[in-house]
Amino acid sequence: LTVDLCRNVNFIHGQNGSGKSAILAALQICLGAGAKRTHRARNLKELVRKEGDASTAKVRVTLLNKGADAFRTELYGDTVTVERSIALRGGYNGYKLYNYEMKEQSRSKKDLDSLLDQLNIQVENPVAVLDQEEAKKFLTGKPEDKYHFFSKATELERLDNSYGTVVDR
User: Fold this and answer.
1) Which residue of 23, 37, 46, 143 has the smallest Cβ count within 10 Å?
2) 3 state SS for the chain
């Protein structure tokens, strides 16, 4: 399946069961979110449809890489394609970053994290990527759920974890 999105805001709509959440989950997984964050599986392999003799699933997202915030344009050019492979049985299980010519430039999660940081893409932030489960929790949840949402959205949770790591050393 190929979904062409515009460069600003996209609305994906359709009937229940038509795959809207699957598209969002694919974007999240490709850009580094954990399977639990998608609210669809506990681990990556549970996200892969097990039909026929397929042993690997791949998701690709191509990002525009222009302007003052562009990421390493001398290496990647005007677009960066992120590919996430999920191997069910053997094979490569990880990320690949491709330049505008679709030539592989990296397999490092650290490079993916640097790219996302440079482009200010926050796949773990519930305000940036608001799925149905997070919206329900926010609208009908207890005060503790709303505080947890706030601390994730403002990155206070991440800062608190980083601070805890430094203090423990």
Assistant:
1) 143
2) CCCCCCCCCCCCCCCCCCCHHHHHHHHHHHCCCCHHHHCCCCCHHHHCCCCCCCCEEEEEEEEECCCCCCCCHHHHCCEEEEEEEEECCCCCCEEEEECCCCCEEECCHHHHHHHHHHCCCCCCCCCCCCCHHHHHHHHHCCHHHHHHHHHHHCCHHHHHHHHHHHHHC
